[in-house]
Amino acid sequence: MPLLDWLNKSDAVRTVQKVPYRLLEAVPKLSAGDTNTENMLIQGDNLQALKALLPLYAGKVKCIYIDPPYNTRSAFTHYDDNLEHSLWLSLMYPRLELLRELLAEDGSIWVSIDDNEAHYLKVIMDEVFGRKNFLVSIPWESRYSRSNDAIFSLSHNHILVYAANPNRWKTIRNRLPRTEEQAKQYKNPDNDPRGEWRAIPWDAPNIRENLSYPITTSTGKVRFPPSGRHWSRTEAQWLEIVNAGLAYFGKSGDGAPSFKQFLEDSSDIVPNTWWQHEEAGHTDEAKKEISIIFGANNSFDTPKPERLIQRILHIASNSNDLILDSFLGSGTTAAVAHKMNRRYIGIEMGDHAETHCQPRLKKVIEGEQGGISKAVNWQGGGGFHYFRLGETIFDEVGSIHHNVKFAALAAHIWFCETRVPVANQADSPLLGIHNDTAYYLLYNGILGDRRPQSGNVLTQAVLDSLPKHNGCKIIYGEASRFGKPRLEAENIVFKQIPYDVRAV
Ligand SMILES: C[S@@+](CC[C@H](N)C(=O)[O-])C[C@H]1O[C@@H](n2cnc3c(N)ncnc32)[C@H](O)[C@@H]1O
Q: What is the whole-number distance in angstroms between the Cα of residue 278 and the centre of ligand 1?
């Protein structure tokens, strides 16, 4: 397959390997709502944040939506959108690789982009996600007004869509509900008790011999397909239509054969490739949504409308699925995912993670009524945890980095095991009990210097000194002096530091 090359591509290809695993540090004062939630807002560079998420969420994300800087040569209030072309490609390549690792087998990735980089992005996404996994490039009508001073007035952005496995995805993706406009095509001129219907013609283009049989209308007239056309299905299928009382020959009763399709029986519709602003929202609408939340003087330059994200999440996910946006901007994807009852992870590098995403999500929890709220009957509730990137976990030889303190490693291990952050800073080898399993960490002499390797080794004396728990015990330490039968008898699962610390 032909591949795109650019200056320093070989470095970009090696980047993921070189990015260190870092701890995710919860910031309780910026978290909000129900603490029993997996929703995460992470402030930091997404390259490092995505790598930190890998041990926890590889293969688990159902829908990834990203809206990276388009490289429009602009300096927006909250971020710069002006990278040298090769640098932009080198920014995207390793991040796409990490996103691919996080995508579920039945997941999909949707990327907003415009003509500045769209066609280069398509080629590198073909390389990273597989050309055969490309589904569509959707032109979204982002703007309906016209700039008369432009060479061409910009009306659309592209949304590139890839599935981890298109065959599998086709079976799980959702259709769209019929809009009121589409439903208006169904009428009931003959007061049919089965409700509103529309006539679907029985003829089709091009001739096929076995599809040219005679059809008798309700007034007794015999009809054949019009010249150059044939019937769309077989005679046996036509008789089924007749027997079901669905045949229709126009008001006169002897017009061209058609059949009644009832509104009630017509299923939701397959999404098409052309997304107009009436259905998917537009950028003006997005800006209004943002200024209602933050006020006109504290807006965000490039938000997406909530309706656009709603449409994507509706097609690509179901309630409780995990959604990821690693270029979160003003927080739209997280806000919409929250209102649609999806779990989510949002990553944003800029200070607006704290000044825009965090307060926006807090308002959503409080029942904010803008954007899609009314359409989904949003009443408030739920919660999210705020994280920042902490220390690098491993040093160059794969040991736990000497800067990593007990409390930070404890928080990391607890989070990896339970998927919820620790409530308080850990200061005991018993990190907590979750689903009747107790988690212990023997590290950095938490038990005092009298014990072997500062109490980092599981011995009988160490076990005796640990807070008791009758159920299963998961104990992290540098080594264990117990054999397998003894561990089983004590209901202990021993995990060795650093090898069993996730992220290795
Ligand atoms: C086009 S905006 C996203 C807008 C968003 N869709 C919305 O509705 O508000 C792109 C965002 O990506 C962020 N960004 C750029 N590089 C990043 C990186 N390496 N890590 C995390 N965020 C980054 C920028 O700060 C900016 O907020």
A: 25
Range of the domain at 220: 180-265
Q: Which of 293, 318, 365, 378 is nearest to 41 (CA)?
A: 365
What's the number of CA atoms in the CB half-sphere (13 Å) around residue 261? Answer: 11
Q: Which of 202, 237, 265 is the last residue of a domain?
A: 265
Q: Is 454 a member of any domain?
A: yes
| CB 70 near ligand 1, within 6 Å | no
Pocket flag, ligand 1, residue 69 (CB < 6 Å): yes
Reported as a single tens digit per residue, the pLDDT across 437-460 is 999 999 987 665 445 455 789 999
Residues 203, 133 share a domain: no
pLDDT tens for residues 119-174? 999 999 999 999 999 999 999 999 999 999 999 999 999 999 999 999 999 999 99
Domain boundary among 265, 300, 327: 265
Do residue 411 and residue 461 come from a single domain?
A: yes
Per residue in 252-304, pLDDT (tens digit) is 999 999 999 998 887 788 999 999 999 999 999 999 999 999 998 888 999 99
**Is residue 42 located within the same domain as residue 109?**
yes
Strands (E) in 60-154, as ranges, are 61-66, 74-75, 80-81, 103-113, 134-140
Nearest CA to ligand 1 atom 7: 303
Distance 348 CA to ligand 1 centre (A): 6
Q: Is the CB of 90 under 6 A from ligand 1?
A: no
